[in-house]
Design a protein that fits this description.
Length: about 450
């Protein structure tokens, strides 16, 4: 704590001797916003950090105003506390850190799950990692969530193993794991969604412990409500598009060994698979996106894709499968199996006809009836649509946007995601015959 204060004080000195450069704000984006839900403001430097590292889902609402505490500028959120040097107040380009909330609140716990383990466990795999820094491992769904939503800078190292604890809210036993700055709660009923791990409201616990005033305050003059649409957002995100799996290789068929080679290349180069749900959350709601994110998609639902689904799961990776319900070989049972591996299901229409050639009513039916059929099979919402044959135009997109989806995918168009392309975000066709070098070029450079 004391050492951190010193580091922050040094940051102030450095900032004081060099003119702080304000990053250019596009248009008229505000530097302060208000959250009516909790009655608090969010201003720089915390606003940029909050928006850039996960927003509402990761940090929650602000529950205090920014204020001075122990020589630092701090602000409490539902799931975190942010800290910055005092001189950073109002500056967007300033070092912000997250308090080690869980480590502070759980110091001195003596259950066996908190005992460091000797570094003699088996070597790291995509399914399990060991952190000698704290003597704890991180595996399966918790590892996936940690990698996808911020990793070390946001959550810190694990400070316990995963274990069962009674959830104080429900009295039920749940699987949890503690990190320096977070407590993960496993939600098996939400598997394969953004909410398969829930973050405990540690900021609320810390605010109570610190006696912080969390009462709502009146809005300052001319401060707008927070709305992600107030801020520009676009990013590069490769979305890979595959079809059939098998031999012989062709434009629309990739041998399993070649797919595995590509997946291993992605892992070796630090890529993390994310769902389309996460990609669209990042685009539309300031959600988190790992620096090397990739989305893997499969169209048409042939039976051969089950092998792809399993080889992905063996690497702790997930993909999105676009299904033509009733025509794809993958039916309700297979789709439930995909969901149990954490994969995501999207719609690829009812009949796979080229949609630009259909009437308005037919387009509406293709999108809407396929969504309803998949939802009936799976008992959960279907959020994304992929145009058959990548065939779309403004009329098709406008109609699909009214049929209950959150976004739609084209088949080509590069790697740049923008809000104005929400109903035709780009994908990269991965021809089943390409070399690994060509694949790497698509992922890194295209
Ligand atoms: Zn197709």
């Amino acid at each position: 704590m004391r050492r951190l204060g010193l580091l922050l004080a040094l940051a102030c000195v450095v900032l004081g001797t060099t003119p702080a450069v304000q990053p250019a704000r596009a248009g008229n984006s505000p530097s302060i916003v208000y959250f009516p839900a909790t009655g608090h403001h969010l201003a720089e430097p915390f606003l940029s950090f909050w928006r850039g590292h996960g927003g509402l889902r990761i940090f929650g609402y602000p529950i205090s105003e920014a204020h001075e505490r122990e020589g630092m500028l701090v602000q409490y959120f539902e799931r975190a506390r942010m800290e910055a040097p005092l001189c950073c107040s109002g500056l967007s380009d300033c070092p912000v850190q997250l308090t080690r909330t869980a480590a502070l609140l759980n110091a001195g716990r003596t259950e066996s799950a908190f005992f460091p383990l000797p570094n003699t466990v088996s070597p790291d795999t995509p399914l399990r990692r060991f952190f000698p820094e704290t003597g704890h491992s991180l595996a399966y769904g918790f590892l996936r969530f940690w990698l996808r939503n911020g990793g070390l800078p946001i959550f810190g190292y694990p400070i316990s193993e995963e274990f069962s604890e009674i959830d104080s809210a429900t009295g039920q036993s749940i699987t949890v794991q503690y990190f320096e700055r977070a407590r993960f709660e496993w939600r098996p009923d939400k598997l394969g969604t953004l909410w398969e791990v829930q973050l405990t409201r540690l900021g609320v616990e810390l605010a109570v412990r610190d006696g912080v005033d969390t009462a709502p305050v009146p809005r300052q003059a001319d401060v707008p409500d927070y709305d992600p649409a107030l801020f520009p957002r676009s990013f590069r995100l490769p979305v890979l598009m595959y079809h059939d799996i098998g031999e012989p290789a062709s434009r629309y068929r990739i041998p399993l060994w070649r797919l595995e080679q590509q997946l291993d290349w992605l892992l070796a180069h630090g890529y993390v698979t994310v769902s389309l749900e996460q990609a669209f959350e990042a685009l539309l709601a300031d959600g988190p996106l790992p620096e090397r994110a990739v989305v893997i998609t499969f169209d048409d639902g042939p039976r051969s894709q089950l092998a792809a689904a399993r080889t992905l799961a063996a690497r702790n990776m997930t993909a999105t499968f676009f299904i033509v319900p009733g025509r794809s070989a993958l039916g309700p049972a297979e789709l439930r199996e995909l969901r149990s591996m954490g994969h995501e299901i999207g719609s690829h229409s009812m009949t796979h006809r080229m949609m630009t050639r259909l009437s308005d009513g037919e387009i509406r039916w293709e999108a809407s009836a396929s969504r309803q059929k998949l939802e009936e099979w799976l008992g959960e919402p279907i959020w994304f649509f992929a145009y058959p044959g990548g065939d779309w135009n403004g009329r098709v997109a406008a109609i699909v946007s009214t049929t209950g989806y959150a976004g739609a995918m084209a088949a080509w168009g590069g790697t740049q995601w923008r809000r104005d392309k929400r109903w035709a975000e780009p994908r990269i066709e991965i021809d089943g015959r390409i070399s690994l070098d060509r694949f790497a070029w698509f992922v890194q450079r295209f």
